[in-house]
Amino acid sequence: MQSSRLVVLIIPLLACLHTASAFSVGAKLPSLRRAPALTKAAGLRMAAEKYCESVTETKRRPTRTVIAGDVKIGSEHPIALQTMTTSMTSDVQGSIDDVMRCADAGAQLVRLTVQGNREAEACYKIKDGLVKKGYTTPLVADIHFAPKVAMMVAECFDKIRVNPGNFADGRKTFKEINYENPEDYQAELDFIEETFTPLVLKCKEEGRAMRIGTNHGSLSARTLSYYGDTPAGMVESAFEFARICRKHDYHNFLFSMKASNPKVMVSAYRLLAAEMYDLGWDYPLHLGVTEAGEGEDGRMKSAIGIGSLLQDGLGDTIRVSLTEDPWLELEPCKRLKGIADEQREKKVWSQAVPTWRETTRDFKEFSKREGQLPLQKEGDDIDIRNVLHRDGSVISVVTPESLSSPDALYYDLGCKTAVGMPFKDLATSDSILVTGTVAADDKAARTALRRMQEVGIGVISDAADLEASPIANAIALYSLEEAAKSSVKLPKGAIRYAITVSGNEEDAVLDKLKGMDPLLLMLKVPEGVSRVHASRRVFESLKKAGLDAPVIHHIEHGDVEKDDVVLRTGSEVGVSLVDGNGDGVCIQGPFDLSFLRTTSFGLLQGSRMRNTKTEYVSCPSCGRTLFDLQTVTEEISKSTGHLPGVTIAVMGCIVNGPGEMADADFGYVGGAPGKIDLYVGKEVVQKAIPSEEAVEALIQLIKDNDRWVDKDEEEEEGAAEEPAAAAT
């Protein structure tokens, strides 16, 4: 009985410490290791040290094949793409039209929400209508709170998604439960088994597939009380249901671990995979970042989460959840799949990275590598400390020609200006990398450089270009091979130096960093080399040597579309940032400078490093949504997008609302048709506000909580003052 009391004392402490707030911008992730007493009581083993097939090359994790309709899911098959309809499921024709349009766009599975008997009855008609039109796309029923409805729809749909957080436990609460003894906890598990077993047997009998899909935002009160709001809780929540499936010899299922925070999502999937390796389980994985939002931000967050896992060979089916029409989700899905396929199939990528072993990165313990920020030295003519930012730096690549049009350049770098003078703002590039020689007699360019340095924007230039035409107070850039040949001798005018590393140097060359003191390292991986694995090799070397130079991920894109820039950068750089490896980014390519800068800041914010704008947790809409989510989200973002440090959740219904809003400051949630509930954190503070009044009520709520600032006059005028040259 004494050991039971020990559990009671441990659990509330963990629940308090391991909350969603620990995953917010700039915060450290909590350790995934837990007290032995709790581990034993709850079921997770936490012993595995392996979460993917290889950390030095991309290999798909071997899985069994799960069959949903005519689609096979698993490592022996191509990654399957899916989306979810937004029509009311009771609208049979609207749902049929949605499914057909999604299938035509490339969806191999389509999910529909099924919340009640009326919707379940409509599912038969939807399935029949699609078959008559020649569409055999497998249909997935999304089930929350309704075991009996799941039994009905299992007779006609091909796959059932159950949410272990609310299938048997009911609606979301945050009530802390102190279990006086293990028997109390076991009694709840027995109830889950009693409720869930009929569906398991039904799916086994009908040959249906199942997804056990945990959502970070809808963990049960029981799970929260044992684990807190953690990846470990997400995994155990799913395993409770998986053990019941296995008990009845039903194995046609897969897992998902979704969260709106990419770092939480990646941590949960890695832990899930590790636990399965330890147990000898081989069930496939469905990947997704839930409530990712819209536009570039939604794509970036999805790329960081989904793309990072695909880089490690995890994931057998994917969905990019956007607050947009569902068929628009398929294009980024295809591109993320393409990036993953390319990474695996071009074996030369991994072979080009010299053989090495990883010993310093622990996927169970998030710890950010802290690069040493620039230090001021006696005799410095400028304040060198501002050329990098403590929460993550953005370096923009500029040409000598762009320096000759300073007003346009200042605008593209995100500067505010007054009488032609630039000033740093929240999302101003921290430094610039000048490509090419700046002519000594180009007065406009020289003046622009000096003015930027005076307000703390660093100027980096290739050492050879500085030898040809010096720039006062510049940072000279050398390749590691150049710097390794002899001691660095700064060009005239330069006050510090930086080094470019590629990650595929010979070990002896990489070791030369030990005797150097660069201001920063630019990690620029050559084309044809795996960026994720070359980067891991560099960080392994730096950590072993005890070197703390800041590392900027320098990624260059060719002539591709802007979405490719977002998705590839999120995948190939985001995978390092979610591990805490990297101090900033430099994105280069044939695109307007403003786009590359905002994409860079989007990467840092999506990786939970540096917050420069309002963060939105916005669901993608489905048949449960109680208002026009796309229109409302756009209206809210227009009114509140100038509040960096504020996170606003926009949720179509209550299914995940309060839970996902545990990571948000304010919430706007559909409570009933035409009625909105407003939250502060996870507490509802206003209910049943008419939808036409709700946005203004949200703004007032933000003001009442002292989080509102008025828009800057320049922001209000916006593009009206944009320099003509900046638009070219």
TrEMBL record:
Tell me which cofactor or cofactors this protein depends on.
Answer: [4Fe-4S] cluster
Q: Which GO terms describe its molecular function?
A: 4 iron, 4 sulfur cluster binding; 4-hydroxy-3-methylbut-2-en-1-yl diphosphate synthase activity (ferredoxin); iron ion binding
Query: Which Pfam families does the record cross-reference, listed alphabetically?
Result: GcpE, GcpE_C
Q: What are the entry keywords?
A: 4Fe-4S, Iron, Iron-sulfur, Isoprene biosynthesis, Metal-binding, Oxidoreductase, Signal
Q: Which residues form the signal peptide?
A: 1-22
The family database entries (Gene3D superfamilies) matched by this protein are listed as: Dihydropteroate synthase-like, Sulfite Reductase Hemoprotein, domain 1
E.C. number: 1.17.7.1
Pathway involvement of the protein, from the record: Isoprenoid biosynthesis; isopentenyl diphosphate biosynthesis via DXP pathway; isopentenyl diphosphate from 1-deoxy-D-xylulose 5-phosphate: step 5/6
Region: Disordered, residue numbers: 707-728
User: Which reaction equations make up its catalytic activity?
Assistant: (2E)-4-hydroxy-3-methylbut-2-enyl diphosphate + 2 oxidized [2Fe-2S]-[ferredoxin] + H2O = 2-C-methyl-D-erythritol 2,4-cyclic diphosphate + 2 reduced [2Fe-2S]-[ferredoxin] + H(+)
SUPFAM superfamilies, per database record? Nitrite and sulphite reductase 4Fe-4S domain-like
- Which terms under GO biological process does the entry name? isopentenyl diphosphate biosynthetic process, methylerythritol 4-phosphate pathway; terpenoid biosynthetic process
Got a GO cellular component term for this one?
Answer: chloroplast
Domain IspG TIM-barrel: where?
63-333
What superkingdom does the record give?
A: Eukaryota
User: Domain IspG C-terminal, which positions?
Assistant: 615-703
Chain intervals with Acidic residues compositional bias: 711-720
Q: Which NCBIfam families match?
A: ispG_gcpE (TIGR00612)
Q: Which HAMAP family match?
A: IspG (MF_00159)
Record-stated family: Belongs to the IspG family.
Protein name, as recorded: 4-hydroxy-3-methylbut-2-en-1-yl diphosphate synthase (ferredoxin), chloroplastic
Species of the source: Hemiselmis andersenii
